[in-house]
Amino acid sequence: MAKAINQRIAKNILHALAGGTVPDNGLQYIAVGRRDEVEAFTRDMDKIEEGYSTFRLLEGPYGSGKSFMSKLIKNEALLRGFVVLECELAPERKLCGTKREGLETYKCLMAKASTRTCPTGGALEELLDGYLYSLEEQARQPGLPERAQQNGRTEEEEVCEEVLLSCASLRKLIENLPHGFDFYHVFCRYARSWVTHDEDGVAAAMRWFRGEYQTKTEAKRALQASDIVTDENWFSYIKIWAVLVREIGYQGLYVILDELTQITRNITNAITREHNFERLLSMYNDCYGSDARYMGIVLCGIPSSIHDTKRGIFSYEALRSRLDVSKLQGSELYNSPIIKLSMLTKEEFVALIGKLDAMYAMVHQGEQETYFSEEEQIAFVTYEYRRIAAANHLTPREFIRDFLTILDLKATSRPQDGMREFLGGGIHMTESMIGAGERESAAGAGKYENFSL
Description:
By secondary structure, this protein is α/β, with parallel strands linked by helices. Helix content is 53%, strand content 6%. It has a five-stranded parallel beta sheet, with helices on both faces.
């Protein structure tokens, strides 16, 4: 693994992990476990390709790997030919709000649109231009001058008409959807401006697609469009984009929203929170009804943002009754919308730190295979599992942080020490790294220190 990976990617991975975040590239080099979860999402992708829509909630505590899992989903979706829209919810970005927070979420999704050839975002213009380029190439086949003369048009005008004529099937699909008429009208304006190299027209249409017009008057003046993307209708336009990307050659659309807590416990106003839950319910119903096609939605959140009956999603009965897991479902099945990330096994943790050790050694000591032997790596995993409540609460983020700390010490100030020295008290232990017995000893047994039998 260490020899196969590019050193620049390895540095980026280690840099991101040291900061407690998920790297954008190279996840395949450090991915371990999660086989059942990944298979559940690949089955979802199969359904989306057949014309269905799916809705998933990815549940796990902070540091449990939700962001990592969502990146894996994104990468798999891109490899399979999906367009991926992703956004991290924030105080200014929700599903709806009194200050256009829903529209801000739509803008973020459009800005971060990704495809396989443009995986870091900004792919909206690329996917439209790629489609129009193929139609223009077909229109410029031999015989164009004769066809233009016969129809009384210039060659450029003839190309425009043939490009728009080629979109006839797309028109039927889009105009049947809510807000589809205005969407297709702006699409035609974009196509005409693109073929005629009208940069102002292209920019105006792209602004409309991205939801950047504030008033209908402004959009009417620029594009003769009678509607704009708003806080109330933005998800209707997401459904149109799903149909569009499918028609122009992609498998479908994946929408990934992180930080679900922003629309649950972080909203103190009960009415605003309920409006967001109503929007979430509408999205769920659209996915499992017939209103949305070729689309998958994934929302990531901590357990309290879902199960809290006061501020969580389950406080809204209509959502709880739809999302709650069946009592007959085992942990190995993922038929319900909620996927709970389980803790990695000891074997998976050993495999993970083996990958990190080899990667770190390659970056800092080009000729060295690893800093620690397999036995030392197993000793580290065993030590981590001794932490209080580690069996249920040890997260990959904490685990990786601790191991990278030891690797930093090994590579810089203490190259002669082995894992035994690092774990035997030579390394400063944080409160979370002290086991129950060690914690009691370190505190002098508290109020019972003078007690004896």
